[in-house]
Amino acid sequence: MSLTTFFQFTHTSYLPLPPTRPPAAQLSDSPAPKPETTEQIQSRGLKTAVAMLHQPEIMIAINPLVQHYSRVPPSDHDRLVNLNKLAPEFNVTLAPQPSCSSFAESRNGEFVHYEIIDKFEFLGGLTSKLMTYRACFRPLYDADQNMIPKALGRESIGVETISDPGSGVALLGKWIVSVDERKPGFLVLSEKVQVHCNVFLGWYVRSQLEGAHALLHKEFGRRFCERMVEEDPMKGFDGKSGKTWRESEDERNRKGPSRTGTGSTGASVSRVSTDEKK
Q1: In a 10 Å sphere around its CB, with 0-12 CB exposed, 13-18 middle and 19+ buried, how is residue 247 labelled?
Q2: pLDDT in tens for each of the 278 residues of the chain?
Q3: How many CB atoms lie within 10 A of CB 203?
Q4: Could you give the domains of the chain?
Q5: Which residues make Cβ contacts (< 8 Å) with residue 132, sequence separation at least 6?
């Protein structure tokens, strides 16, 4: 009689895309970039989300259970995930894959290995225990599960990870970013996890993973929104003057308070709020 149980769970979240913006005035001394179209915003969002998935340090750090992690060099065989054992269990091929431009550490689609320390709580948080385990990451190529714009070509659309926490527990995770035409203005972040573990640990492992991964999706979404703002080609441009916010504020400061008696800072803040609502 086997004491190993197999289960899987999925988690889906939605990544909001910024709305299109009105064009900024074009001035010869400070030309503003053209606003993005809906298609350009979607394409930029896909590339940004996939680039985040292709950074293992991000995927590890946003897990609320993680306390510490470090990269394991390929030469340190004793600390690598035993892929020869675990890959067949999950029906994962180790054959070379195409190189991925946004996952430079993974040559020919090879797994990149890490050693991670998690903190698990017991008895409702009355006690806890640190657990050291190994995990590895590589680009995921699975175009059939994703509506990929032609702009992405044959690039990877997600990340695949295998974790070996020990004690008979093993996990296969697949993260995919996709487009759902029924949800305009959003990207879909899907995670599918397969778990092998001792039958007596199944309930505990599942409860810990599902709770942690819900928070993981929330943190991924927050960082995604921050990156989209930072990478906005029109970031900081005043939609009326065509100048950056800093240039406009400096000009107002030189002219002094407005006629209504409102200081230049107040006028600037009011205008920022108005443009952001559009």
Answers
A1: middle
A2: 567 888 888 899 999 998 887 776 554 455 667 788 899 999 999 999 999 999 999 999 988 888 999 999 999 999 999 999 999 999 998 887 777 777 877 777 789 999 999 887 666 666 778 889 999 999 887 644 444 444 444 556 889 999 998 878 899 999 999 888 888 899 999 999 999 888 877 777 777 777 777 889 999 999 999 999 888 877 766 554 444 444 554 565 566 544 333 333 332 222 222 233 33
A3: 11
A4: 4-230 (3.30.530.20), 245-277 (no CATH)
A5: 115, 116, 117
